[in-house]
Write a structure and sequence with these properties.
- The structure holds two protein chains of two kinds.
- Chain A folds into four domains: 167 residues, Rossmann fold (3-Layer(aba) Sandwich), CATH 3.40.50.300; 77 residues, no CATH class; 197 residues, no CATH class; 187 residues, no CATH class.
- Chain A has 31 helices and ten strands.
- In chain A, strands 2-3-4-1-5-6-8 form a seven-stranded mixed sheet, with helices on both faces. A two-stranded antiparallel sheet of chain A has the order 7-9.
- By secondary structure, chain B is α+β, with helices and mostly antiparallel strands.
- Classes of the chains: A alpha/beta, B alpha+beta.
- At the A-B interface, helix 3, helix 11, helix 12, helix 16 and strand 10 of A face helix 1, strand 2, strand 3 and strand 4 of B.
Chain lengths: 709, 83
């Protein structure tokens, strides 16, 4: 019979272990696709919960905790474990713990295990990577180890699936019997420690003295403590040297369990990590290392551009068909327009990003699973650190060259909050693929082809210049934030470089699936709403203006004997001018005039707040080019655009360059803003980012236009 | 074995290891870095070897017992090592 106290909820099992212990592989194996992603209360750290059924029918909620080394955390991520386990009333406080340790590094992976055991929680110890240990000639006497550590222990391999049956049996036993944790503790509290724990004991619902001691160590930041609680603890502290006791406790624990592990384990004499070290001699070489890294990234980008095109065309086609189908079925009217031009267009705008996100995440994750990304972080940490970033920021910045959305989402691996925030804030400066169509349309006007364009094509150089400008802006602002933003967290690297190993495609697939799902749901909501608003602004206007526009189009059409299609394009163009978006364009004209922009560019800028690539479509509508072959058509049309008074070309190099520069810097992608909101858990940072980037865009365009004009 | 009343492991700095050199860890110079390093298994008595430096300077690739780690120079310098 199940003994755990509330029959109205499932048995709650916490999955805890050091980073690189293979914890997430175990999680994926145990729960399959039955996982939900949420947040731990008050923080942006991901909480994955998976449900599964044990033999005998008990349901288990498995909560995946972020990887941690100790109850004395050095990153935001790591804090989650101790903050949950120090509070028996926490919504995630488990009934038992499944602790994952890497068998090949067992001497290093048991600190947190002994701390958890000392809380009196039942713990099952899973020794993962059994297959690798065998390859290395490592043998473990599991019964001996289990007896010494006083916890059930299971050999596991998340690669081969070995040991999962035994694990499930052990778990069933635990759930059925509702076993209690061990009463003996690994660490005997010193006199000072136990006196302090006793003094605190009356005030909090802790299970034992060690839990009280943890409150004393962390009372300054533990979120569940009220102000009075902090005062109570502070008044009992009496010069208790937290850091000193942390060090002593940690040392004592290692002293205790290291001999136990050594007695239970036999290693062959040879250096176990010679294989990875051999590979790293080349992959992290001072010269070849970075070269290989950039070559790999080049391949990743090639793959994105080569593979994402097909599904993206497919998605375009499907949404085109849907659009036509809806228009054919429903009568013409505002509802149909809302469905097609508002909602379907918005949905299309979300779905179109999926191929790029999926491919990028797949390849980056693959490199992560193999163990390569830790090496990349190691190689570039010094450079990144100079700019206030972290070695891991490099991956995000490079991803941003395809799309800022997966880049922002990939920053979760950065432990230091300040470094992560700076990465999120500056990544969108890197020119993403959505800026490309804008560059293609405008670059010819900004940099007219010269006479002696041989090898050094001037337009090609300008292209490269735009990309470089984005990189410079990203690093420059990062450097600025490094000195402006304050943090108490110490910036450290201390990164484990795990053994290279064959990737588990299942893990990679789950990760990709989860990221894509998060993007579609979280960003999708915001994008849809904004798309509908933009649609309404561009389709509606003051009634008399809209009617006048239609009449004017009709009379011009009769006058110039235009075809029906031409008349439709003209009507669309004049109505856009008469719409609220058009009014807004004219309204902001005085503001953007110093940059050389007229109201038409203003409308394009307002509409491409949704996404930069909308620029081309909007320009096509404004100049009534129609929808045939937009890019070529629009280039031709822009070339013939003349000032009605002076007769001079509108798209002068100065004006076009100013517009280009604006698109390099401006934050014009609501999807990114939505993702930044989700990742930073507040509107403060996306708003700040928008103001910063768009402000910089304005200033840069102003300078460029005023200098060139 | 009982918890040893270990002497304080906070010690004055020694000359840091160069690339290719190895030694035995004796302690740490700063308590806060010590807790993080200890948690990762960088312990007094562990064998440490500096394998190489990162391409652009101040990050090092070290082996501590069977484990490979990337540390910044400041963290390496916080480890007291007897050659």
């Amino acid at each position: 019979m199940s003994v755990h106290l509330s029959p109205d909820r499932n048995f709650r099992l916490a999955l805890i272990g050091n980073p690189n212990s293979g914890k997430s592989s175990v999680f994926n194996r145990l729960t399959g696709l039955q996982q939900k992603v949420g947040n731990f209360p008050g923080v942006t750290v991901d909480k994955k919960v998976g449900q599964y059924e044990l033999e005998g029918g008990s349901n288990v909620d498995l909560i995946d905790f972020p990887g941690a080394y100790s109850f004395y955390p050095s990153s935001q991520d790591e804090r989650i474990v101790v903050q949950t386990l120090a509070n028996p009333l926490d919504e995630n406080y488990p009934d038992a713990v499944l602790y994952i340790a890497d068998l090949t590094l067992l001497e290093k992976h048991l600190l947190l295990f002994t701390q958890i055991r000392d809380l009196g929680l039942p713990v099952i110890l899973a020794l993962n990577m059994a297959d690798m240990a065998e390859e290395q000639g490592l043998h473990v006497d599991i019964e001996k180890l289990s007896k010494k550590l006083q916890a059930p222990a299971v050999l596991l391999s998340s690669h081969t699936g070995e040991g999962f049956d035994t694990l499930n049996q052990e778990l069933s036993k635990l759930v059925q019997k509702g076993e209690n944790g061990s009463n003996t503790s690994f660490h005997s509290l010193s006199q000072e420690e136990s006196e302090l724990a006793t003094k605190i004991a009356g005030h909090f619902p802790a299970n034992n003295a060690y839990q009280n001691l943890l409150l004393a160590h962390h009372y300054k930041w533990l979120p569940h403590l009220a102000e009075e609680d902090r005062k109570v603890i502070a008044s009992n502290i009496n010069g208790f040297q937290s850091l000193h006791h942390q060090v002593e406790e940690t040392m004592a624990r290692f002293d205790r369990f290291t001999p136990m592990v050594q007695q239970a384990i036999q290693r062959k004499k040879e250096e176990p990590n010679s294989f990875s070290e051999g590979i790293d001699r080349i992959l992290t070489h001072r010269v070849f290392g970075p070269i290989i890294f950039f070559a790999l990234m080049f391949l990743v980008f090639q793959a994105i551009y080569a593979w994402a095109g097909y599904p993206m065309d497919g998605i375009d086609w499907v949404f085109g068909q849907l659009n036509e189908a809806v228009k054919a079925i429903l009568p013409a009217g505002w509802l149909t327009d809302l469905l097609t031009d508002g909602i379907l267009a918005g949905l299309g705008g979300v779905v179109i990003f999926i191929p790029q996100i999926a491919i990028l995440f797949f390849l980056i994750n693959l490199l992560e699973e193999v163990g390569y990304m830790a090496r990349a972080a190691y190689m570039f940490d010094s450079v990144m650190n100079f700019f206030g970033l972290n070695g891991r920021s490099l991956v995000a910045l490079i991803s941003s060259g395809a799309c800022a959305i997966p880049a922002v989402m990939s920053t979760r691996t950065i432990a230091n909050w300040k470094e992560r925030l700076i990465t999120i804030l500056v990544a969108p400066f890197i020119s993403c693929s959505a800026r490309l169509p804008v560059y293609v349309v405008l670059i010819g006007f900004a940099v007219p082809a010269g006479a002696n364009d041989g090898f050094f094509n001037r337009q090609g150089l300008a292209f490269m210049g735009l990309y470089l400008l984005g990189i410079v802006a990203a690093l420059g602002t990062a450097l600025l934030f490094k000195y402006v933003l304050k943090t108490n967290e110490r910036s450290m690297l201390m990164l484990a470089l795990p053994e290279y190993r064959r990737p588990l495609l299942r893990n990679v697939a789950y990760n990709v699936w989860e990221k894509v799902k998060t993007f579609v749901i979280e960003a999708g909501k915001v994008i849809l709403v904004i798309s509908v608003i933009l649609w309404a602004l561009a389709s509606y206007g003051p009634k008399q203006d809209m009617l006048a526009a239609e009449e004017q189009a009709a009379s011009i059409a009769t006058e110039q004997a235009l075809s029906e299609a031409e008349q439709e394009d003209l009507t669309a163009s004049l109505q856009l001018e008469a719409s609220y978006a058009g009014h807004m364009g004219k309204w902001i004209e005085p503001v953007i005039a110093p940059l050389g922009f007229d109201w038409k560019m203003g409308v394009a800028i307002i509409c491409s707040f949704a996404a930069r690539e909308v620029f081309v479509g909007t320009m096509a509508t404004i100049y009534s080019v129609g929808s045939v072959d937009e890019e070529a058509g629009i280039i031709e049309r822009l070339a013939s655009e003349k000032d009605p008074i002076t007769g001079a070309s509108v798209y002068t190099p100065a004006r076009s360059m100013s517009l280009l520069i604006f698109y390099v810097f401006a934050m014009m992608c609501m999807s990114t803003l939505a993702v930044v909101k989700r990742e930073t858990n507040s509107w403060k940072w996306p708003i700040f980012q928008f103001v910063l980037m768009t402000g910089l865009a304005y200033l840069a365009s102003l300078v460029v236009y005023q200098l060139m004009a | 074995m009982t918890a040893s009343p270990s002497p304080s492991i906070i010690k004055p700095q020694t000359t840091p290891l160069g690339v290719g050199e190895s030694g035995i860890i004796a302690g740490f110079t700063q308590a806060d870095l010590a807790t993080s390093l200890l948690a990762m298994g960088v312990l007094p008595g562990s064998k440490i070897r500096v394998i190489r430096k990162a391409p652009f300077g101040r990050t090092v690739y070290v082996a501590v017992d069977q484990q490979n780690l990337a540390l910044r120079q400041q963290e390496l310098e916080a480890i007291v090592i007897h050659k």
